[in-house]
Fold this sequence. Notes:
The chain is α+β, with helices and mostly antiparallel strands. Helices cover 14% and strands 33% of the residues. The chain is built from two helices and seven strands, in the order αβββαββββ. It has helices at residues 4-10, 61-69; strands at 16-24, 27-35, 55-57, 74-75, 80-81, 91-96, 102-107. The chain is elongated, with a radius of gyration of 17 Å. The relative contact order is 0.16.
Amino acid sequence: MSGEFLGEVTGAHGAAVRMAVVSVADQTVELLEYRNVQGERGSSRPYDPGFAHLAFEVDNIDGVITRIAEFGWTAQGTPQPIAGGTKVGTRVMYAVGPDGETIEFMEPPQG
Length: 111
């Protein structure tokens, strides 16, 4: 995707976008990779205003840590169990990608 339409919608004039649409369990996620744009490189912190939060529920968070490392992602610490509430026992972890993007992974308790 590129051209005037993209520039008018996103403000990224002159950019090209590589897009993937992933559908799982009646949910659809659109993933965009902007190319040919000038911008500030760096990461946003997940607690900064305007930060978008994306979390995935996984069956094996330790396996995810190993797999994402192959693609340049870094786990932020070790998975931590939620101590109370409706998700008690769920292990959670943030990971940061090679371009500074952050994703949360959540592994519900087994059984």
